[in-house]
Specification:
101 residues; mainly alpha; 3 helices
């Protein structure tokens, strides 16, 4: 019997150092920001589409930051609707003298 260690054996400390460390998964935090992955379909109206894209900001915020975004989007959509009312429509037909309306 020989007291020498065969060259093919690796001491335990060296073997542990060569092994990749196991990936540690972060603990699940239900309050952490998480994308909702809700599709946002463009409407063709630039003002409305910008507000829909703004909703995507909530994907990167904790839930306590969502209210500010929702209020901002609501305000922007309300402004877009108000702008529709402010656009001049077609001119009214001229009234003819002697015609009742």
């Amino acid at each position: 019997m020989s007291d020498t260690v065969p060259e093919t054996e690796i001491p335990v400390q060296e073997a542990a150092a060569e092994q990749p460390a196991e990936a540690v998964e972060p603990e699940y935090d239900p309050a952490a920001p998480a994308p909702l992955d809700v599709p946002r379909t463009p409407t063709g109206d630039a003002a409305v589409d910008a507000q829909l894209e703004r909703l995507g900001d909530t994907d990167h915020l904790a839930t306590d930051g969502h209210l500010e975004v929702y209020e901002d989007v609501h305000r922007g959509l309300r402004d877009a609707l108000t702008a529709l009312d402010a656009r001049p429509g077609p001119p009214a037909p001229p009234s003819m003298p002697g015609m009742r309306s």
